[in-house]
From TrEMBL:
UniProt feature coiled coil, ranges: none
Lineage: Bacteria, Pseudomonadati, Pseudomonadota, Alphaproteobacteria, Hyphomicrobiales
Pfam families for this protein: ABC_tran (PF00005), BCA_ABC_TP_C (PF12399)
The UniProt record lists the keyword Nucleotide-binding: yes
Classification via SUPFAM superfamilies: P-loop containing nucleoside triphosphate hydrolases
Domain ABC transporter, first and last residues per copy: 13-261
Domain of life according to the entry: Bacteria
Keywords: ATP-binding, Nucleotide-binding, Transport
Stored InterPro entries: AAA+_ATPase, ABC_AA/LPS_Transport, ABC_transporter-like_ATP-bd, BCA_ABC_TP_C, P-loop_NTPase
The organism of origin for this protein: Labrys wisconsinensis
Gene3D superfamilies: P-loop containing nucleotide triphosphate hydrolases (3.40.50.300)
GO molecular function: ATP binding
Protein name, per record: Branched-chain amino acid transport system ATP-binding protein
Amino acid sequence: MSSAADAPGPVVLRTAGLTKSFRGLVALREHAIELREGEILGVIGPNGSGKSTFFNLITGFSRPDSGAIEFRGRSIVGVGTARIVGLGIARTFQGSRLFGSLSVAENILAAAQLRHPVGPVAAVLRGPRYRAHAREAETIAARLLNLMGLASQADRPAVDLPYGDQRRLEIARALATEPTLLLLDEPAAGLNSGETRALTALIRRIRDLHGVTVVVVEHDMDLIMNLCERIQVLATGEVICVGSPEAVRSHPRVREAYLGHA
Ligand code: ADP
Ligand code: MG
């Protein structure tokens, strides 16, 4: 491999001393990570260890008590959810947040329009700017339907999709906002092992095609070990270790605190 390929890319996300409590309970304590462009980081830990809190802090759903969050070198502490999407950070949620009565294509279009907003005045006038944005959103949606294997389902109401397809649609919606940082909260939850393997390959393909940086919170150890270049382990809000899959697998506190109960 060439030295250029080995050279670390720019830092996309950096947290330091990131701390969040809820009524005296510390959900995340002194969290620190530095993510490089194109990297796939896994975050594991038992229920209640602070994984979703980490995502909520980065995406403006929750405000830290203290600590730094930088996206491409710029602080995003206090930045609201809509502006976070505009900056290029997208996420999925642990539970489904699909618009059940909208079609698959409409779910993706709605998300694409978050990144290519059609202002109320422009929408009324249906002017060239509106048409350009609408066309852009439609192009993005069509591309994503194909990428995610959902093209044949485009016109079905999201609620009628098989469960595995719904999970992929949630990722498609996040991608529709054209993120450079993608946060996936338990994307394999409820999938069987075949579906999980296919999802693992798909996430890697998304990274390879789009060059996005990915953080995956997940309980499924096969997905984590096969997909992630680095893994961070949390327990009761604290970072226990971060390292390669091999290093994490053999870490004594990880075996004891998490893998033993997985
Ligand atoms: P994980 O995603 O690893 O299961 P969470 O980040 O959801 O864990 O939660 C970490 C801890 O913070 C848990 O004890 C949880 O009950 C608590 N917590 C998370 N969000 C809130 C909230 N909005 N209000 C109160 N407590 C919360
Ligand atoms: Mg969670």
